[in-house]
């Protein structure tokens, strides 16, 4: 036989050997996926419209946070989700659709209509949802805090020592379905009023129909919060903690759900180890180092 035959045979065998090794390495590497993962995500209508999601084709590359106003946590956490997939070396094609509310989004995910939600959810709210994969804690137990906010001229702002305030002498307002806020206010407030819109809540504080409410700290140094043209201020020195954790969920009924969940979980582990999760929340005021020494008014139980 000619040397050409042997040379060709040699290179053929070498190619097969190298291809086999490369394939084995790819299969053994959990960070390698052979196909693009397509993910359908539900986002609250308010955030969907605010960030003009319908005009965005590549979510992970095009979604931007605002520099001059408060950002919705949903947008922050959608970017965090993108970073987790990137850290896991997984390419994703995300399609975002609007959903009317948090509970509807959970039901849609549990039923397999969407893969996940563009925000973390309270781990305690998942008891009745059996068809969801649940990630590790993203906002860890007790990290989520809120301030006690009033209108600027309210008498509660005039106390120089918050230890002299008996909050049981004052009324508060929140949403009934915000179970953690409602529970905390029932503990510290004399009367808890409820409403159905955030604009209404702020207007009740402005008009004096309620004395205070619980609001996430904004990202400015003064911690002053302005929305719908209404400004409210925190009572400095006191806060409440949400004694729960927040997690991402992935529908077990959706296509490639296990692969998506595993990739997200790996990515979150990498981000946590590299200390890249908390800074997102610190930057936007959701976790606020400036209030770390303020007194916590509510109890864990």
Overall pLDDT: 90
Just name the CATH architecture of the largest domain: 3-Layer(aba) Sandwich
User: What separation lies between the terminal Cα atoms?
Assistant: 85 Å
Low-confidence stretches: 1-6, 13-28
Gross morphology: elongated
- The level 1 CATH classification of the largest domain is Alpha Beta
Number of helices: 9
As for the CATH topology of the largest domain, it is D-Maltodextrin-Binding Protein, domain 2
- Main sheet characteristics: 5 strands, mixed
> What letter string, H or E per element, gives the SSE order?
HEHHHEHEEEEEHEHEEEEEHHE
Radius of gyration: 25 Å
CATH superfamily annotation of the largest domain: Periplasmic binding protein-like II
Beta-strand residue fraction: 15-25%
Number of strands: 14
Structural class: alpha/beta
Helicity range: 25-40%
Number of domain units: 2
What does this structure look like?
- This protein folds into two domains: 37-141 and 245-285, 3-Layer(aba) Sandwich (D-Maltodextrin-Binding Protein, domain 2), CATH 3.40.190.10; 145-241, Periplasmic binding protein-like II (D-Maltodextrin-Binding Protein, domain 2).
- The chain is built from nine helices and 14 strands.
- The chain is elongated and about 60 Å long.
- The longest helix has 26 residues, at 3-28.
- The strands form five sheets. Strands 6, 9, 10, 11 and 14 form a five-stranded mixed sheet that branches. The chain has a three-stranded parallel sheet with strand order 2-1-3, with helices on both faces.
- The protein is of the alpha/beta class and 301 residues long.
- Helices cover 34% and strands 21% of the residues.
- The model is unreliable at 1-6 and 13-28 (pLDDT under 50).
- It has helices at residues 3-28, 45-50, 59-62, 73-87, 102-110, 179-188, 198-207, 257-273, 278-283, and strands spanning 37-44, 92-99, 116-117, 121-122, 132-134, 145-150, 171-174, 191-194, 213-215, 225-227, 230-241, 246-247, 249-251, 295-296.
- Keywords: Signal.
- Residues 1-28 form the signal peptide.
- It comes from Agaribacter marinus.
- This is Solute-binding protein family 3/N-terminal domain-containing protein.
